[in-house]
Design a protein that fits this description.
about 35% helix, globular, 17 helices, 27 strands
Amino acid sequence: MIHTNCALRLISDYVKQGARERPYHIAFIYSNNNITYEQFDRQAEKLACYLLKTGIAKGDRIAYLSTPRPEFFYLYMAASRIGAIIVGIGTRQSDKEIEYVLKNSGASYVYTLHSMYEFDYQERFARILPECSDVKGLVIFGGEAELDNAIAFDEIMEGEYSEFKNVLLERESQVSTDDGLIIVYTSGSTGVPKGALMSHQNIIHMSLVELGMCGTAADDIWINHLPVNHVSGATEVGATAIIGNCTQVLEPFNPAKTLELIERHKVTVLGQVPTMFAMEFALPDYSKYDLSSLRIVVISGAPAPMETLRQMRDTMCDNCYNCLGLTEVSGLITYTAPGDSLKTLNLTVGKVAPDFELKLTDNNRREVPRGEIGEIAYRGTSVIKEYFKLPEATKTAFDNEGWFYSGDLGRFDEDGNLLMAGRSREMYITNGENIYPAEIEDAIMRFPGVMFCACVAVPHKIAGEIGRAYIVPIPGKEINLEELKEFLKEYLSSYKIPREYVFRDTLPMTMLGKIEKKILRQEVEAELKSHKQAE
């Protein structure tokens, strides 16, 4: 059992602890600058006082659009101290998606990047905000304010707000560990995006368990190159490293840059989804990087291909974990054990952490027998209590005993490890047989030369539905389709083998690096519509 009896109520209390006990220990490495826990605490306090000056009340929402950078974490901890709720927006979301988040959350301010890649965010918010009457203004990270209702973050931090320190102390005393702190929106693949409201307690307990299960220490150096509007960057790495008083190297994901930073800063903890590892391993000069500092490597977010796992152990470190995490449980919740075989890491996501509960259920929410596929349900202190302003969605997903029903499918093997079978909505039926895409994708990923793959259902006049496999080969490799089909017979029953194959150079990806099947399904729908019109 991991000890999760929190002595500290709020996440920001852990920053104070770091500032008090190890003031010169580095919290962040960003753009060649080191920021200590003492500096982190001071900046978060100043911003908290500024937020009070602007009239932010307990429970008010503040939206942010950011990459992993110190200003985001100052806002995170400032909100923690005054009882505000921060709301994540993706850097690649469309105007309509951003507008939905702002309206659903009722955010009163937006903290945003000045620009990134091809996006000028001030220009975009100039279009969006007239439709969002709750938003009072913008704060700009990393650049000058160009709009009338905007102010640069650097200008805020040059101000003096010491007269609000007593107000801050009073406000902090009013904030409970059960109060909401961050809203992370789900992808919306089964309808409108749902805002999962996480409390201090949800995140603190998840993080303490993660620290214990992976065996991390305060001297560990993490790399945080994950989206901070997602649990990966905001809680699984971001909050967990803070609660452990560890160091974070902050940088948006880029395969070569990640490896360079691991080598330069002697990173010890690396967590990524399989596609990130695949992109790094595909670099022609991958072998030149010194990755010997790594002592903990975590893979999660999608099935872990055997070849990827083998390369992780051979070229990174022996101490590898395959974990399952999701937004509604505030981060990671299952873990393989240290020293588990590559086969176990390949086929399973391990066991639920001792502090939490997991069960598999049928359509009536009754537990299924061991070995059968069922919907995965979770219960424990890291599980959220609600989707923000969506009472019906909350009622559908949760029961009266505190169980959250995820929509994910899985089964237990003979050792009690969890094997994923995909999303319930992704299951399709061919000639009366249930087929789970995750099983097919796992088999295809075993074939030499496959870098990424995804399987989706395609309507069929006779069979009902059949599988279509989208495959991205490793650069420079060619895949013989007939050899692949013959290979799949070793792992899949004949009815499970896809009947259609599409080879591409790339597949649509989420910000986290997961294959975005929603877009592939939309392509199938558009294709069918085009065929009907042609007829």
